[in-house]
Amino acid sequence: MINNTKLILISGGTCSGKTTITREIEKILCDSKVAHISQDNYYRDLSDLPDNKAVRVNFDHPDSIDHVKLLSDIRKLLTGETVRIPDYDFITHKQIPNAIEISDVDVIVLEGIFCLFYMQIVNLADLRIYVDADADIRLARRINRDIQERGYTIDSVLKKYLGQVKPMHEQYIEPSKKNADLIIPGEKKFDKVLGILCNYLSQGLK
After folding, report:
1. Closest by alpha carbon to 64, among 96, 28, 40, 38?
2. Of 30, 200, 44, 39, which Cα lies nearest the Cα of 127?
3. Is 62 exposed, middle or buried (0-12, 13-18, 19+ CB in 10 A)?
4. What is the DSSP letter of 40?
């Protein structure tokens, strides 16, 4: 039986601003117990592959995510169960099982590029948000992130973007926008949108 736990999905292209809007929502819901879960935690373990093969895996394809495990964990949280979700190391490409314990939450905020793609998860959500940002802005942000946080070179970032990220976005992520209740511009200030969200969340999700 489903309890009163609510599910918010935040999707959008790579580096569109998903994490930023997630943090703002957490501030709005500061009086509630919120679990922020990243879809990235559920990337499949590749630690058995040599580094030269692991880096060529298409992380922007829906099959790169263990969406069965993700769906199972979300369903358990919605019914009040305690779950231990995995974590993911992008340097070693290793999934660390049972790394983070989550229990007794009022709201789950799940964010990631495929959050509006997997329809079994979409159908469980109380609010579905797509963060939309210009491709050039997203690429610039991705270059900065991958060089600083993941140790990539600019050449490797551009090669992956053109060969995988951009075509996968056009094939899978951009079309999932149709499943959103609300589309937010990721390159602008969120002030007006946050006012709308604050009103909705305070009335509809608490």
Report:
1. 40
2. 200
3. middle
4. G
Q: Looking at residue 163, what DSSP letter applies?
A: I
Residue 108: count of CB within 10 angstroms of its CB: 22
Tokens of 10: 């935040």
Q: What are phi and psi of 64, to 5 degrees?
A: -75, -15
Q: Hey, which residues does 9 pair with through a beta bridge?
A: 110, 128
Kindly tell me the sign of the dihedral angle through the C-alpha atoms of 118, 74, 33, 6.
positive
Cβ-contact 78, 7 below 8 angstroms: yes
Cross-strand bridge partners of residue 110: 9, 37
Q: Give pLDDT tens digits for 135-163.
A: 999 999 999 988 888 778 899 889 989 99
Could you tell me which residues are beta bridge partners of residue 11? 130
Residue 119 φ/ψ, nearest 5 degrees: -65, -30
Whether residue 37 contacts residue 188, with contact meaning beta carbons closer than 8 Å, is answered with no
Residue with tokens 């993941």: 150
**For residue 118, what pLDDT is reported?**
97
Taken in order of first residue, the domains within the chain and their CATH numbers are: 6-198 (3.40.50.300)
pTM of the entire predicted model: 0.88
